[in-house]
Amino acid sequence: MKKLIALAFAFVLATTTIASADPATDAKLQAMQAQLDAVMAQLAALKAQQAAAAAAAAAKPAAPVVPVPPKAPDASFIQLVKGDTVTLLIGGEPVTLYGNLDLSWDHVTKGFNSAPLNTDAVGNTSYLSAISSNQSYFGVRGLHRTGKKSGVLYQLETELSVSSTSGTVNTNSNNDGIVKGGLTSRNSFLGVLTPSGAFKIGKSDAPYKIATARMNPFLGELGDYAVVMGNTGGDNRVEFGTRLDHALWYESPNMHGVTLNVLVSPGQNRAFDNSNIPSGEAGCAGGNLPGSGALPPACNDGSWGAIYSGSLNYQAKKLYFTTAYELHKQVNRSSDIADPVLAALDVGDEEAWKFGAQYAFSKNTLLSAIYENMHRYVPAAIQYQNERTRDGFWLALTQNLNEKNNVNFGWARANPSPGDPGQHNTSGGFSPDNMANLYTFAFKHAIDRHVLWYFDWALTLNHRDAHYDLGAGGRGLTTDCHDASTLAAFDPTANGGAGGVTGNGPHCYAGGRLQGFSTGLDLRF
Question: Rounded to an integer, what distance in angstroms lies between the CA atom of residue 175 and that of residue 173?
């Protein structure tokens, strides 16, 4: 196109400056004029083509806009943070994976032979070997920052039934619809972090339990202090040392060594006496299922309503001090009384308070002590069966032998209660002899900073009317007061098809001398 225009321009310039001199010249000029006419015709044709193309483009619909896919994150989007914990940075935000695997071999006896009036106990009540999965769990926690000092916290944690199959519980010791190995069966929550503290919602160990957990060197082992501490009646259910579902709680920041934790868990129970399963739950509040233990089909064996729990803690160099309080509203224990009129009175508040102190005499010697008082508020007419009002003590000593080895000693005492409902071999009544002592020893060897081997021995000495157990507090296996009698259950084929209850168990025998040995491995990450 440009060449044609230049040729035409040169031709016009030549014709304006050259005069006709002769016929030959005229012939040349005529030839050049013919060439110019041809060039101008080509220019006109090109212009026509360009105009037609522009008109067609204007009439054609616009092509759709194709979105550009986002660029895939590079390898630096997910990073592993150096350190002892398994922490990832995902999009710059920390996500930590953590867990504990603790399995042991146990050899434990119920010790009924040394107790009076136990001649009719069914099954093997002497030493029995077993494999136990203790405080094994896996979890993930993280923080989504919304500001320099604020964010959203989350944690999902589940128990791991490493040595047994996950499922509901239906044994002589406990009947429960909760699958402890189910997803998020342990402390799980969503929370808001602020400069004034953390506000969380979900389920968690209560502040009352957490306040003195550091004073328990036998956590998850035989002789865990939960055999006595926080345990009103000596069962495997530790009423004042438990995890609370459907809860709201607040954790304060550290204020010159002082911290405050408070929690509330609404009862979520439509029954005024808390005899129903709470809304959204799989079992009765406080553990067990309606009708467990050969009882009527209701939550009447320790089912509670709303719970309020709190602790005030102080840490100053070598000294730690804590005081804690917890209240359980309208606890239903009507199954402890056969008379239906008196049984209706056996719904009352239960509370507990304690203070504890821990002092490090040196980097090798740690001493812990706790005093605890628990009280059940019921009318004078049924005080004769009140085994839930008492006090107790705990002493523990940890002595490091060197960097990898230590020994631990523990002693707990449960003092007598004002009354007792009676067991299979005791009559109950006022002023029972239901004192008990727990003695524990453990040797621990750190293979490295993640793996621990331990040997553990524990002994629960029950007086004649006491039935404190061995292994309460989160162990996979517990040893309690029940024999192997057949569980009571409804059988529709009994009595010629009319139906009826078969079995009469479980039977609980007071006065046992429970003793056990345990050795295991504990892996933490």
Answer: 7
Residue pair 75/69 in contact (Cβ under 8 Å)? The answer is no
What SS3 string covers 128-145? Answer: EEEEEECCCEEEEEEEEE
Tens digits of per-residue pLDDT, 264-309?
A: 999 999 999 999 999 999 889 988 888 776 567 899 999 999 999 9
Query: Rounded to the nearest 5 degrees, what angle is found at the Cα of 185, between the Cα atoms of 181 and 189?
Result: 155
CA torsion sign, 506 to 508 to 512 to 517? positive
Report the alpha-carbon angle 104-461-292, nearest 5: 70
Q: What is the pTM of this model?
A: 0.82
The chain-wide mean pLDDT, for the chain, equals 86
Separation between Cα atoms, residue 106 and residue 422, nearest integer Å: 30
d(CA 318, CA 328): 34
**pLDDT tier for residue 38 given thresholds of 50, 70 and 90:** low
Beta bridge mates, 99: 138
Number of C-beta neighbours around residue 495 at 10 A: 11
Helix 2-17 crosses helix 23-59 at what angle (to 10 degrees)? 150
pLDDT tens digits for range 493-508: 777 777 777 777 788 9
Nearest-angstrom CA–CA distance, 431 and 505: 27
335 or 441, greater pLDDT:
441
Helix-, strand-, coil-residue percentages of the chain, each rounded to 5: 15, 40, 45
Per-residue burial over 341-378, b = 16 or more CB atoms within 10 Å of its CB, e = otherwise: ebbeebbbebbbbbbbbbeeeeeeebebbbebebbbeb
* DSSP-assigned beta bridge partners for residue 331: 348
What are the strands, taking DSSP E only, across 160-231?
A: 169-170, 175-176, 188-194, 197-205
User: What is the residue-wise DSSP string for 28-86?
Assistant: HHHHHHHHHHHHHHHHHHHHHHHHHHHHHHHHSPPPPPPPPPPPPP-GGGEEEEPSSSE
Q: Using alpha carbons only, how large is the chain's radius of gyration in Å?
A: 40
3-state secondary structure of 401: coil
* Three-class secondary structure of residue 398 per DSSP: strand
Within 10 A of 34 (CB to CB), how many other CB atoms are there? 9
Domains of the chain, earliest start first: 1-20+27-45 (no CATH), 75-524 (2.40.160.10)
Mean pLDDT across 71-92 = 71
Better-scored residue on pLDDT, 186 or 78: 186
Per residue, the 3-state secondary structure of 247-291, as one string, reads EEEEECCCECCEEEEEEEECCCCCCCCCCCCCCCCCCCCCCCCCC
Residue 314 pairs with which residues in a beta bridge? 258, 321
